[in-house]
Design goal:
Helix content: 40-55%
Strand order of the largest sheet: 2-1-6-5-4-3
Shape: globular
Number of strands: 6
Largest sheet: 6 strands, antiparallel
Radius of gyration: 19 Å
Domain HTH cro/C1-type: 30-81
Protein name: Helix-turn-helix transcriptional regulator
InterPro entries: Cro/C1-type_HTH, Lambda_DNA-bd_dom_sf, MLTR_LBD
Number of helices: 12
Organism: Streptomyces doebereineriae
Order of helices and strands: HHHHHHEEHHEHHHEEEH
Distance between the termini: 41 Å
Strand content: 5-15%
Pfam families: HTH_31, MLTR_LBD
Length: 281
Amino acid sequence: MAVTELGQALRRWRDRVPPDAAGLPSGGHRRAAGLRREELALLAGISVDYVTRLEQGRAVNPSVQVVEALARALRLSGDERTYLFGLAELVPPGPDVVPGFITPSVQRLLDRLVDTAVAVSDAAMTLLLANPMYAALMGDPSVLRGFERNGVWRNFTGMPTRVRHTPEERRDFEAGMVAELRTTAARYPADRQLQALVAELRTRSERFAELWDAGVVGRLAGSRKTIEHPQVGTLTLDCDLLRVEENDLHILVYSAEPGTEAAEKLRLISVLGTQSLVDRS
């Protein structure tokens, strides 16, 4: 019974989310005003087939990560999120787990920044949401899966990135990321996903293991970032890190001073969109 109710709830919530509210094009013939299954799958980072099976009651026992991703994509309230976890026969993550819930108030803030490149990560620097402008600037993150969505993982395992650092900037950035991650790990010592991330990184990266064993703790700060975009070339932007303390979220905002060459390149990127993206950042 719970599976059937889960499918009905997902379809009901999907129907009420206008695609333009989620940063998706709303043109073309649509049978309903809400999200298509493939659009929900894209936003949640899961397959269309799995969304279909969940809605039709042919899939059971979705993971905590999948339910959390669906709650974000469907823009559920706190009560609705709790209800979704119950339908999936799961208990919402407790205070000992890194929070991954984007509240409606934070979502409304993001909706107002459509012309600004914005991404939201949890306290462990795992990407939760990125708006279309961020995808156009940094590369489409919807293709990232598992640990690939974590910024520390991407930086220490050599995944492609459009950010260009000097050697000194890279050393400082890596040290800051590890210090932030260690601080988060101390705040959520029972989070198994975070424990697995650290263990895997220690195995995969000597540099990470060296910094982790040094025991540094701290907070990553905002900075200026030099980005090499495949269509408009190099631009240097302010990258501000805003923290939502109550929900332990990180909001990254990329901007340029008005009237500068970087601002003009950002405007051009917003026109180009993600039509030619070939890498992942």
